[in-house]
Amino acid sequence: MRIAVLGTGGIGGYFGGRLAAAGHDVTFLARGAHLEAIRAHGLVVTSVAGDFTVQPAQATDDIASIGGAGPVDVVLLAVKTWQLPPVLAALPALVGPGTAVITTQNGVEAPDQVADAVGRAAVLPGIAKLFVHIEDPGRITHVGGPGSLVVDEWSATPGAPSDRVTRLRQAIVDSGAASPVPEDIWAELWSKMLFVVPFGSLGAALDATIGELRSKPSSRALLEDAMREVEALARARGIRLPDRVVAGTMAFVDDQPADGTTTLQRDLLEGRPSELDAWTGAVVRLASESRVDVPLHRLLLEVLTARHPGALLG
Ligand SMILES: NC(=O)C1=CN([C@@H]2O[C@H](COP(=O)(O)OP(=O)(O)OC[C@H]3O[C@@H](n4cnc5c(N)ncnc54)[C@H](OP(=O)(O)O)[C@@H]3O)[C@@H](O)[C@H]2O)C=CC1
Ligand SMILES: CC(C)(CO)C(=O)C(=O)O
Fold first, then answer.
1. Ligand in closest contact with the CA of 104
2. What's the complex ipTM?
3. Each residue of 154-189: pLDDT tens digit?
4. 209: number of CA atoms within 13 Å, CB side?
5. Ordered domains of the chain (ranges, CATH)
6. Which ligand 2 atom is nearest residue 145's CA?
7. How would residue 314 be classed by pLDDT, with cut points 50, 70 and 90?
8. Do residues 48 and 76 make contact, with C-beta atoms less than 8 angstroms apart?
9. Measuring from each residue's beta carbon to the nearest atom of ligand 2, which residues come in under 6 Å?
10. Residue 30 in contact with ligand 1 by CB distance below 6 A
11. Distance (Å) from CA 69 to ligand 2 centroid
């Protein structure tokens, strides 16, 4: 398959790297010192699921040059939410009638943003579950989590995946990652939101790891309360979340590496622009639209915005 990885960070470097190592024709969009290191030494991935290096790796900082060779089969869209606008502006040149554009962003709004650029038929909502980051220029580190990338068509027929989704899931599995079949991709996307937004915003507000949040009774209770707010919002919007989704998510929380933190928390605490608007901001915004009360998320948004004035600047 001809694949464009737009954003070679934790997610793009990990899943794109595995697909390249498995023999697919992958071009990585990267920039700066990271791009230089990839060009010089390849893309080096250290992973609890097995280390590998893509060398040579096809990498560029010019999206137009990828589209210049015609549409690709798959776009793995793996930039942060606030980095989407310029990438989406260039995306149409990479998309032909059969191209699948996989979203990997946390939150629930990226699929619609991509659909506005290239149409719903191209979009495969995706959910990445793993802890992975850029360690140094050219080097990606995967420290834990399921290591999965769930994908499906926008309007999937249960039990009857499209040919391109079947091929893609098989390619992901053959590359050494997991790609479980979701019952309902939208419920899966919201379930991830229900996990990551409470974890991310409370982790940032309290400067706590997942191990600390889950082991102190006070923060554990807040985590569950925040998850219940997202559950109420999702159900109000007609999302068919699994029964007992909060209990199931807390069991998942208990299973994650104790020192795990979210990308949101790390970006906020290190003073970088962040996805706060797409995570906590989206919960508050969508709740107001759906007339659902989310006081804990409102408080977290207020506190984090006041404490990190650059957080909403993309
Ligand atoms: N990391 C994780 O464990 C998980 C992340 N996610 C989600 O996946 C998405 C991606 O996250 P993650 O991989 O951590 O992010 P990273 O910041 O690690 O990766 C994004 C990469 O894209 C690059 N980039 C952005 N715009 C451009 C551009 N126009 N041209 C070239 N390069 C560009 C960035 O470069 P630069 O640094 O120079 O801006 C960066 O290297 C997020 O929405 C996140 O919520 C989901 C599950 C787990
Ligand atoms: C918490 C984590 C690593 C879970 O996949 C995540 O999605 C993020 O930090 O963006």
1. 1
2. 0.99
3. 999 988 999 999 999 999 999 999 999 999 999 999
4. 9
5. 2-182 (3.40.50.720), 186-307 (1.10.1040.10)
6. 5
7. low
8. no
9. 106, 129-131, 145, 196, 262-263
10. yes
11. 33
